[in-house]
């Protein structure tokens, strides 16, 4: 498998989880049969804000591949413009207000700290869009650093930034690990713990390890790890969905969807990880063909690979 395939798997994996999950967001219970029926249907797979902002970040990185890497001022503006162009994509309430401030010329350093007593958002919005960073990071440490820089322009809260770092480094490890060898849960989580050091995240890593070793079902896992719109309450479940099904992206996405709650975002993150490990060819082709942004994502994967 080439790096190109894996880059494409990473980006298409985001869109696939996102679009399959979009009608399920907030559903209390998601039956496997309903997911399978949707996979086999012919509906066009329309994405939400997760993929919309992933496209923005991927383009931003592709344009700067050989120069500066990431420019916060420009990136903040590009995110806000994407929201203005398509505000109906399902954006969170707080980040919407951040975008409105950015569009009136407020610097991101101020806009991102306007809410929650200056702490900013701990939503999963910075994590859901961060996967392309794994394609340009030179190491786990570098990936975490870039992820935090991409996060802070809208999600200043420590958990919002840590969630982005956690998911980006997980994607980096998924992308660079040898898919011919079994994925080992404990070393994978230890590598994450080295770059995401705060205590609440370490507690989540311990729970993920227990649930992965026990083979927990998605319902139970969602109750233990959370399935809400916060970074700390969603990035861990996405990680478990992948660690539970490391070699089967469709199964990783289904596991995430069955956890319910913020299903589209959790499945988008699980899809990125499993797609990065197994490549675009491993994704369910009858679904990939129906993805709204398939061509744009494939083209960007080629440029970033
Ligand atoms: N304190 C209390 N509540 C908070 C805090 C905080 N510090 N931060 C966030 N919230 P937002 P996102 C709550 O708006 O992270 C979409 O469906 C608050 O109620 O920053 O970009 C996406 O696809 C806030 O409105 O959005 C994601 O799935 C909410 O968390 C999801 O929403 C979301 O934070 C989050 O996207
Ligand atoms: Mg979402």
The major β-sheet equals: none
CATH topology: ADP-ribosylglycohydrolase fold
Helix content: 55-70%
Distinct ligands: ligand AR6, magnesium ion
How many β-strand stretches?
0
CATH architecture: Orthogonal Bundle
Poorly predicted runs of 5 or more residues: none
Would you write up a description of this structure?
The chain is built from 17 helices and no strands. The mean pLDDT is about 95. Helices cover about 65% and strands about 0% of the residues. Helix 8 (about 140-150) runs antiparallel to helix 9 (about 160-175). It has helices at about 5-20, 30-40, 50-65, 70-85, 95-105, 110, 125-130, 140-150, 160-175, 185-195, 200-215, 220-225, 235-245, 250-260, 265-280, 285-290, 295-305. With about 300 residues, it is an all-alpha fold. The chain has a single domain (about 5-305), classed as ADP-ribosylglycohydrolase fold. The structure holds ligand AR6 and magnesium ion (MG). Ligand AR6 binds near residues 90, 91, 93, 124 and 128. Magnesium ion binds near residues 48, 50 and 264.
